[in-house]
Amino acid sequence: MAEHHSALGLAIAHSDAVRGVDIAQRAPVQPVTLVRPHAARRAARFFVEKFPGRSMYAVKANPSPDLLQILWDSGITHFDVASIAEVRLVARTLPDATLCFMHPVKAEEAIAEAYFTHGVRVFSLDTIEELEKIVRATRGAEDLTLCVRLRVSSDHSKLSLASKFGAAPHEAKDLLFAARQAADALGICFHVGSQAMSPEAYGNAMERVRAAIVEAAVTVDVIDVGGGFPSTYPGMEPPPLERYFETIHRAFESLPVSYSAELWAEPGRALCAEYSSLVVRVEKRRGAELYINDGAYGALFDAAHIGWRFPVQLLREPESDAKDVGFSFYGPTCDDMDHMAGPFELPADIRAGDYVEIGMLGAYGCAMRTAFNGFGSEETVIVTDEPMDSLYVALETADRATRSNVIKL
Ligand SMILES: *Cc1c(COP(=O)(O)O)cnc(C)c1O
User: Fold this and answer.
1) How far is the CA of 97 from the centre of ligand 1 (A)?
2) Model pTM greater than 0.90?
3) Backbone angles phi, psi at 85, to 5 degrees
4) Which of 46, 78, 80 should be mutated for ligand 1, with most atoms under 8 A from CB?
5) pLDDT band for position 403 (50/70/90)?
6) What is the tens place of the pLDDT at every residue in 222-259?
7) If you measure from the C-alpha of residue 266 to the centroid of ligand 1, how many angstroms do you get, rounded to a whole number?
8) What residue's CA is closest to ligand 1, atom 13?
9) Which of 190, 343, 372, 400 has the greatest CB tally within 10 Å of its CB?
């Protein structure tokens, strides 16, 4: 299959429809990352059109410059960055983007470079010490939007973010008051934890916000509901995102904030989970265990360490008609921890030499890969078939042949 390279270095296949199975037929020796720009575009448009406020992309979920460009082209103009390296990356890739530095613990040098070199004006904080750092590093700037991060419950989420950051209820009043004095615009932000499985997570957090505003009696200009919007995985099918948006909108409308107050969100996972998947080769089979060429140190960190189940499909033509059974995976490194329990449902006749696509790795998957033990993946190919699952299209049947016709690029 003929291909050329995009401005950003991706291999682009010339043919109109390129599917995961076409990549497997090339028999790649290393894992291959498949990217689906149309899926990221669709997710971005969904947030831009339906979220009742501003959606900024949380870059840590997947910092690929190609993805940043796709999101920008689809209407995402604001980016939540957490480190000076992310600030530089987005500033370099998208010079007109607005950057918001939303890590509540920053190096003073990072704050100064972000403010003076890259024009960053939005910063989050959760202590008085961090507020003092921001004021010092920006030399008392008077054009700051300061977002006070509140600690909220992670009860509805698969990955907690409740212990590390955020002002506790008894600390919020003094902090909001002090930040109000230093800020041009004052915001309140929180993070309900990643993969929040119920809209209630946001409803409950907004009640914490209300209590904090009432107690501090300050004027608030920005409410930022953070990330946590779910994607869909085997055994983790969330309610429709519209329900989250409705809950958030209703709660926002009833908060005691200035009438011109803005509503922001920082989706990471929901914008990019469907963007990437990975084609791996089965190197060996031992009963119900498959030894594959990517793993815990590759794109499958979450599968190994927190038992996350990703969708899988055998890429074989003609398709196997054996019935699906549960498999676990071993990754390629020499260590027992490189194990993904699954179960991953694959045809019973799978064997060494077969290729498997592991789906929904666009968020916190392909971004977390290392080259430990000499294993890794460099090749990335754009494909045009549908992701293995989607929050944004009704995939009416599991028939892949019809699925690949659904997309509109
Ligand atoms: C990680 C993170 C996000 C993105 O979270 P998702 O669960 O991927 O949506 C947003 N905001 C902050 C501050 C984060 O740390």
Assistant:
1) 18
2) yes
3) -65, -40
4) 80
5) very low
6) 999 999 999 999 999 999 999 999 999 999 999 999 88
7) 6
8) 102
9) 190
